[in-house]
Each structure stands twice: as structure tokens, then as C-alpha cells.
Amino acid sequence: MSNTLFDKIWDSHVVERIDNGPNVFLIDKHFIHEVTSPQAFDELKRKKIKVFDPKKIVATVDHNVPTLNQHLEIKDELSRNQVEKLKLNCIENNIELYDLGNPNQGIVHVIGPELGITQPGMTIVCGDSHTSTHGAFGAIAFGIGTSQVAQVLASQCLLLNKPKKMRINVKGVLNKNVTPKDVILYIISKLGTNGGTGFFVEYAGDVFEKMSMEGRMTVCNMSIEMGARGGIIAPDDVTYKYLEGKDFSPKEDEFKSKVSIWKKLKSDENAIFDSEFTFNANDIFPMLTYGTNPGMGIKYNDRIPKHSNSSDLNALKYMGFKSGESLIGKKINYVFIGSCTNSRIEDFRSVANYIVNKRKANNVNALIVPGSQNVLNQIIDEGLHDIFEQSGFKIRQPGCSACLGMNEDKIPPGELCISTSNRNFEGRQGPGSRTILSSPIMAAAAAIHGKITDINE
Predict the structure, then answer these.
(1) d(CA 243, CA 237)
(2) Are residues 90 and 181 in the same domain?
């Protein structure tokens, strides 16, 4: 029988099948952070249940942490309490924690891959929707709710119904200045924010095969934005090369042995998917969103399409845009380059390459927020730090930052921000803030010119 990559990993992790019910599903790695774990630990304490396997859990702080002066006490009381609660829970349960000041601290979906914790064939969960990022390595990875966090802490298993399978193919050669972020924004604009609901998506085709691991992570990261349970890409030589030598990757002969197993992790030639789509790379250009969900996206120099339904009209009203107008030339005062979508070293290299020997516009507040301490160190070691500072960009310490406005980095009410994050929901980056999603290069161009710019002109 021919199986998909998803089938192979899923079926090998089913502990028990319940008649007319869900599967008891084994979880290999559980990432936790300060926002969704406190209630789960409290539930275990109430029921007097011990953490089942602390060695399969990795904790970090990212959502609530400030990105300035991380050596000082956190000013916000709620944020400080959540961080302290996570620290206490990890100490009590002997769980590895990458706290502020730890050289491996950072956004959970950045540190897992860069440390080699994320590996092909794994099942990975976290109380965070963008856990789908880890699917770039040929892993089944998805976000879970707080009650499910408690389930995994208590049993290392979940009760789950198997999702349907979708394959999205992108074939051909990408156009100038098109990045992985543009590829996934294009796909979401075509399928809609509900297009993947009920599915786990495999990305295939030569465009993804040629992508770097960091590009693949960007694509899988945003799978959730089209309603999918997660995204996955078959591991290959690009994957193995990325993982070799990482801190938690297998070493020497064990690594070679693992690779021989990982090479079997691909969909069989005649594998059947419940749904399949194919896109031509030549149709994809740099993308921008214009509304309040990631599906409201257009080619950077297209005009905003007409809308008739009330939700879309309300989105345009909130953003201050009208059907038929172009986004080119729109004044931008805030630029955010970071988040678990685009805060890796390749993202910052592309930005530095664009802004070198240029100066940001005077009206722009431009934030550079690396996804981890390791990325920050790379920025410094490669001299990118000097380029950012000379261009007037502000470099911060690692954290989720202005992606979600859960910390001190918020966009003021009414202001437009061009952001490399994953969501442009109403008020996502702060009450009343308005967000345009883009690639790092498009964001860098807006920072230099003080407005949205024709990147290919």
C-alpha cells in the first residue's frame, strides 16, 4: 500500500486505536513557554499527577519577555509572574529551561531547529499555533491548547483524530525578489484562511526542494494561517546538512544511521491525498496583505480587489484602505522585522544586503528582533549589527516582540506597520494598530523609503 509522508509518521506513533474514537497518539517532543503552560501545571498539581517524562520537554521564555534590558526585572507584573511561574514549574519537575540570560534562549520555534532538537520523523507539540514551523524537517508538528498541554505533561500522549491529507505543489522558477514568505502568502491568498481546515499539508515541488531550511520553516510556520493543522516537507540532503553538528543532533555514526532512516520519510509515488493543488512559481511576486487576515493578500503592485461581504468591508475600513487603490506609496512609520516566521539569520542577511550604505527614512521606527540569542550572536559576528546601526535600525534582544503585542513592543493606535510576522489581525500588534504582512526585503525597503515601495523598480 502506498502511503504519504504524513501517514508514515502518524501511523508509527499511534499507541492505540479506539473503536469509533480517536487515536492515542505518542508525542516525541514537547515545547513549552510561559503563556500556555502555567494552567496545565496547576491542573497536574490539583490531580496530584507527576510529569510523565521531563526529558522530552524543552522550555523557553519568549512571548512576554521584553526585548530591552533583559538582565533587569520584568516591569509588567503579569509578564513577570508568568516567567517566574514557568521557572518554578521547571525546577519542580526537572525540566530543561532556557531562561533569560541563557545562551540558548529565544523563540521556541527558532531554538528547536537551530539546536537540533527538531528532527525528521518526530511528533512535536507546543501550546502555540505556529508549532507547524517544525514540519519543515519532515516532522508532524502542531499547536495544542492548554488542556492538551496538561495531557502531554501527564502521559506524553494525546487523544487525536487523524486529519485529512493535502498536497500543495509549487513548480517552476521564482521571480525576482520572491522569498519563501511570498510563496506562502500567495498560497494563502489563493486558498483562503479556511482552505486547509481539517487537513495536514505536505508541500512538494522543485520550489520547496530548492529552498533553504530557514525558508521551509517560514512556509510551514504559516500553514496554520490557511486553517491547516500543520505543514510538512520531506527531509532531504538540505535537511541533513542543516542538522549535522547541531548541539542535540546525533553524532558521527549515529547521525549516518539516522540519515539512512530519514531518507525513507517521503510520500510514496502513488500515495493518495484527499486534496491537491498545483501552483506555477512564475505567477508569484512579492506579496503584501491589505486586510485583517493573511488571506487578504495581493501582488505588491496590484490594486486592492473589490469586496462585497461585510467582514472584508469592515477589514478595509479598519485598515483605512479602499478597493481599487494601490499600496505602493503608503506612508509607513513602523517596521518590524522578527517573529517565529522571519527572525533567522538568513532573514537578517537579506535585510542587511538591501540596506547597506542606506539610511532609513526619518519618520520610520525600524525594529530588528532576532529569534534567539544564537541568531543575535551571528548578527554581531557577521558584522550585520554595524550595518543595522549605521542605517538607523534598532536591534533588540530575542523574543516574540511586536508580533503579538503581549510585551512592551507595541505599535501605537492607528499606525501602519509593515511586519514580517504571521498575522495581521485587528489590533494584533497593539490596540488599534494596523498591520501589513510582507517579506523581510519588502519591509526593509519600506523602512528606507518611509513608504511601501516597488521593490522591483
Answers:
(1) 10
(2) no
